[in-house]
Amino acid sequence: MAGLFDEPDPADDPVAPAREDAPLAERMRPKTFEEFLGQSHLLGEGRILENFFRGESRQSLILWGPPGTGKTTLARLLAARSEMPFVPFSAVLSGIKEIRVVMAEAEARRKRDGRPTLLFIDEIHRFNKAQQDAFLPYVESGDIVLIGATTENPSFEVVGPLLSRSRVLVLESLSVSTLAGILRNALERGVEAPVTADDATLEAIAEAADGDARRALTLLETAAGLLGIEGGILDERVLKEALQRKALRYDKSGEEHYNVISALHKSVRNSDADASIYWLTRMLEAGEDRRFVARRLLRMAIEDIGIADVEATRVCLDAWNTYDRLGTPEGELALVQAAVYLARAPKSNATYKAYSAVREAVQQSAAEPVPLHLRNASTKLMKEVGYGKGYRYAHDDPDAVDEMTCLPPSLEGVRFLPDSD
Questions:
Q1: How many domains does one find in the chain?
Q2: What's the average pLDDT block by block, 10 residues per block, for the chain (421 residues)?
Q3: From CA 119, how far away is CA 284, in angstroms rounded?
Q4: Model-level pTM greater than 0.70?
Q5: For residue 288, what are the domain limits?
Q6: Which helix (DSSP H) or strand (DSSP E) does residue 118 occupy?
Q7: How far apart are CA 222 and CA 194, in angstroms?
Q8: Cα–Cα distance, 338 to 295 (Å, whole number)
Q9: Is the torsion defined by CA of 71, 76, 81, 84 positive or negative?
Q10: Which among 210, 243, 276 is the end of a domain?
């Protein structure tokens, strides 16, 4: 990265052509907005980024989306259109020392010619709170316009003050048709050997890429490499060798981890056994901790099935124990069976709701003494002062069920559970 007062470094040109020996995904990076495919909800006339295209906006942005959806490319194209000095910054490779140097140069540049610096931070979620806070004064003063790219939910990974000064743009996974178009362009002008492929083949590669343009182009480059320097046709045999086993998009500690477990939980709650198997298998195939899955299934049994089927808890505990005894892969079937059982079981959240309501009542009401008739008179003195007085033994006095109250006086008559449960 060149200093801001040095002669321009071609490497800092936001749309500089990639080296000839760079990977296909880098060589195919769009150099103009006309070449950019996808994200139509952000691009085009009347869309969110129109003012940025015209160079009329200097608002900081957070670009949030899955890998390979165009975050870095979009930032570079915006930088080229803005005509602001462009400084790319990697949260993986840089620390607080580098931040201070860049901020000092940006401040000096703005004092000299009045132009802010467009600072692009890739993987901004990797910066800790102190590092992110270091940008705030310079964003507020206008010394920098910040564009941060992240695959993680900014609500959790970007500090509040920085988030409130930026506009969050959500990039979506690319559709199969969009990826197929990107692959078709790569065949026409990116792949060196003469390689041909029909639409079905390109769509198969796009399907395997899970909405990630970088992955799609890497798969295409792998397939083309298998044909050799003479090129040829990408047939089923070559495609199968190139694709191998599909790598599912999944981060065991990130956004997709929580998205998929949420999908599983909601599918079980909705009594959709097919969807429950699908989302559970997605997690297992991506390498999720099997004991995490077992814990979450047990939670579903308690939270969503409850007293409608008290055997659900036992089924989940048995599945957990079975997995611990059998391990992978045989033990995974026990987890799948538990998920199917939960999805098909009757549902009740009565105890879950009642517990929440009682907790709120306990927090908001005074801690009243236990009524005397409910106290145990274990000594003569306790009996003399009234402990147990008025207590009615329900086994001998069935009317006590309706006539004797057991809640504190301030909550008498309150119902936390519906009569049907």
A1: 3
A2: 36 67 88 90 80 74 92 89 83 80 90 90 89 90 92 89 92 93 90 85 89 92 86 85 66 69 94 95 87 94 94 96 89 96 96 89 83 89 89 91 88 82 48
A3: 39
A4: no
A5: 255-344
A6: strand 117-122
A7: 14
A8: 12
A9: positive
A10: 243
